[in-house]
Automatic annotation (TrEMBL):
Transmembrane segments: none annotated. InterPro entries: 6-blade_b-propeller_TolB-like, Bact_OuterMem_StrucFunc, CarboxyPept-like_regulatory, OMP_bac, OmpA-like, OmpA-like_sf, TPR-like_helical_dom_sf, WD40. The keyword Signal applies. Keywords: Cell outer membrane, Membrane, Signal. It comes from the Bacteria. It is found in: Cell outer membrane. Residues 1-21 form the signal peptide. This is OmpA family protein. It comes from Seonamhaeicola marinus. Its main location: membrane. It holds the Pfam family CarboxypepD_reg. Residues 515-639 form the OmpA-like domain.
Amino acid sequence: MKLKNYILTGIVILTCLNAFAQYSKQKKADNLFNKFSFVNAAEVYHDLLNKNYNAHYATRQLADSYAFMRNADSAVVYYKKAIDQNNNIPSEYLYNYAQALRAVGDYKESRKWLKAYKKTGGKVNNDITKDGDFLSSIFNAKQQYFLTDVKLNSKYSDFGAYKNNGKIYFVSSRRIKAGFKNTYGWDGEPFLDIYSTNNITDSITPHKAKLKGCINSMYHEGPVTITKDGKTMYFSRSAFNKNTLDQTEDGTTNLKIYKASLVDGKWSNIEDLSFNNISYSNGHPALSNDESKLYFTSDMPGGNGGSDIYYVDINEDGSFSKPTNLGTTVNTNKNESFPFVNSEGILFFASDGHPGLGMLDVFGTTIDKQNNILSVINLGVPVNSNKDDFSFFMDEDGLSGFFASNREGGLGGDDIYAYDRVPQLVLEGTIIDANTNEPLNNALVTLKDVNGNKIADLVTDENGYYEINIDRDTEYVLNTKKENFVNIDQNVTTKNVKRSVSRITNNISLDPVSEEELPIEELYPIYFDFNKYDIRRDGTVELDRIVNLMLNVYPSMVIQIESHTDSRGSAKYNNKLSQERAKATYEYLVKKGVSPDRITEYKGWGKQKLVNKCDGTNNCTEEEHQLNRRTQFIVVKMK
């Protein structure tokens, strides 16, 4: 016996370790997905699918990953699998599937699923469903970002927030004191300087926050990018030499990119980079994650439009290669600017040339395994607005960061906004037999609001697993039912759930109704005529017998009513007909004296649960069809 217990204990430990390993993989995949690293995320989701871990979720994420990689053919395959796997799939996936079908040219099927999406109450933004722009359509079908308060903004322009080693650097045209600072002739505001703070949610004292050292001059500086060790800074500055502006023949002063070193806590050793030229502007520097490349904005000759995004390689000796234009996938015939590269090597930038909401919008890119840029994605509302939105920054966690905008409601010309990218909240769990610990498949899980209104229901899979999307800061009631088990109601709350949490696990144990408690008499089904829901004479005989059992023999018995149709007719019609049959049965029992609280539910299943092979593909007699037109009674509780 001891040996047997040791073996069982070992099996349990191995099972738990394996489950933990797969859960860790899922977290890794989700993190990669949040950082736009869709190629790497897809590989991990594939591995989870191969191990059959949370397959429904992995399939959906894999479909989205392929869509964002512009692999519409694979996206169609996995969106279809996701929808086929789960009748209760979130409606956004119907929309995603429709857009992916549109991208592969299957317009007829796309219209079908777009219609199905609209039936769920979904709304379609016609401005975003242009040919070739289905990625932005899919991305914007989901709420991605939530804005939080930033108190360091001034009545002037503030932008370019960038986090490095616990400090937040930003650019501002604020005055330190009245009459002290030069103004810029173009907009009449003071010239831009670089500031730093430890907390973006606190207001700052300008003269204390202004960057120490010789970076800030009497002209424009910023924005910045800094190496991971915090010792080297690249920044934009108005081109000048020995306190004199470098100007072109027509009197224009352009931007240059400079390099500075941190020495004794101050920035010094300012270097003019070799690829600068007073004839055009280079600005908005951004280091790649491995610090081997420096991205920047330039209006140098030979570009695609007003300003383009380029990069230079940073050689081991500190020198720079010639600038390389990122090409027409990123650059348009208008203006691209403010590049940023996140920890997974994904480029973000601002553009007024790609389809957007108005003026400058923020875009992300998708890449293949060779790091080639495949496409761009508009980040949508609330990051983007109908005004200028730019200088996007994403923190290491992929869930938070900053951007700037001159949208209405701000404090100054440009304002810094902090965002949190809150992942979808999912309630999941496994339902087991409390006596045997075996998983219970086909258990019915119903999610209700606190007023008892049904939100959604689903059945567990072969592993007893269920999963459903839920809202944050909301109270729910979760009802779980299984034939011959005691059903239970649970209160579920998502209030005070941290934004970093994406999944809530709620495992459920159901107690079986003991054989001694089950009624000796069987509750037989009643049958209906074709296309009818009124109770037949033979049905009243059986219903009267059930009434007697419930009132006189088993006064604590609680039942559930399930009604069905045969296979003839549409699914929509049969669902309605079966619900009418269930309602008629319920009303008969209640009218005869059965208390409504002893009938947990009356539900019509349409033609989903046939008892024979009469599914429309076989020739069946009327007697065989009759067996499917029935109402069944399930004992769910013996109080």
